[in-house]
Amino acid sequence: MYDTIVIGGGCTGYSAAMYARRLKLKTLVLEGQRGGILAVAGAIENYPGYIRIDGLELVEIMRKHAEEYEAEIKPEFATKIAKIPKGFRITTAQQTYETKTVIYATGSEWRKLNVTGEREFANKGVHYCALCDGPFYKNKTVAVIGGSDSAAKDSLVLSEYAKKVYIIYRKEKIRPEPVNLKRVEEKIKQGKITIVNTTNVTSINGDKKVTDVTLDKPYEGSTTLPLEGIFIAIGHIPLSDLAAQIGVKLNAAKEIIINRRAETNVEGFFSAGDVVDTDFKQAITGTAEAVLAAYHAYEYVSKQSVMAT
Question: Could you tell me the fold of the domain covering 126-232?
Fold first, then answer.
């Protein structure tokens, strides 16, 4: 039996594993999708100690740090969690594991727009990762749907390849971090980026590939906007379903509710990162929560050991 099993292989999961091993807990990481969303985030400029570092490079450094402490890491997806008398049983497609505690760090997935054509044209003009797929749109016309900091960063990445980038946002003003807003404004002056505010995309159209989108209000006299690529950046959905199956409490947004010790309502079950109910989600906050989760998992295991003697 493991002392703790970390579910999730992003910066949060690897940080939890590193610290759990530093505390001498027998630790397994079921990493699932290696690297998580940080691996495709592009340039990271707000992680202390690194003025600028690629997201994939940062998360790989964290993984190596966990390996340095001899955390066991397996490329398996957890498919089921069950409560057992001495802890938890976790099932993957390969096998079953038992553990005294769980640190749940699954993160989130990209939120879908849920309009006609989105599914049909997935990877045929519809994408969710500008860093991954932007290079395919050299000298083409594309759009980013969304108004967050992520949407702004995506538009900046795409502006290095595309001849024209639209940002289509349902509200009046986009809301990136000030440094990225300034960069977007510079691209607007250069004619590389155009913002289409208070507008929604109602359908994505095309034949074999995307050709245009339909807008809910006219832009420059038409509700049809010709596009060759669409990048959807409207947030993320927490991957909390497995936790909910054993009674872990979620909020209305399906985020796992934790306290300042990274504890959930289920004894021995900890959580951290993008899947939890903290209102500010960054690599640094997920990493900090992960360390808290590992430390309090250590405390929990230690107390259980004393009670058993």
Answer: FAD/NAD(P)-binding domain (3.50.50)
Q: Phi, psi (5° rounding) for residue 220?
A: 50, 40
Where exactly are the structural domains of the chain? 2-109+236-308, 126-232
In this structure, what DSSP letter does residue 276 have?
A: B
Equal fold, 2-109+236-308 vs 126-232: yes
pLDDT truncated to tens, each residue of the chain (309 aa)? 999 999 999 999 999 999 999 999 999 999 998 998 888 878 888 899 999 999 999 999 999 999 999 999 999 999 999 999 999 999 999 999 999 999 999 999 999 999 999 999 998 999 998 988 899 999 999 999 999 999 999 999 999 999 999 999 999 999 999 999 999 999 999 999 999 999 999 999 999 999 999 999 999 999 999 999 999 999 899 999 999 999 999 999 999 999 999 999 999 999 999 999 998 889 999 999 999 999 999 999 999 887 766
Give 214: exposed, middle or buried? Use CB within 10 Å, 0-12, 13-18, 19+.
Answer: middle
Quickly name the fold that domain 2-109+236-308 has: FAD/NAD(P)-binding domain (3.50.50)
The CA-to-CA distance between both ends of the chain, in Å, stands at 17
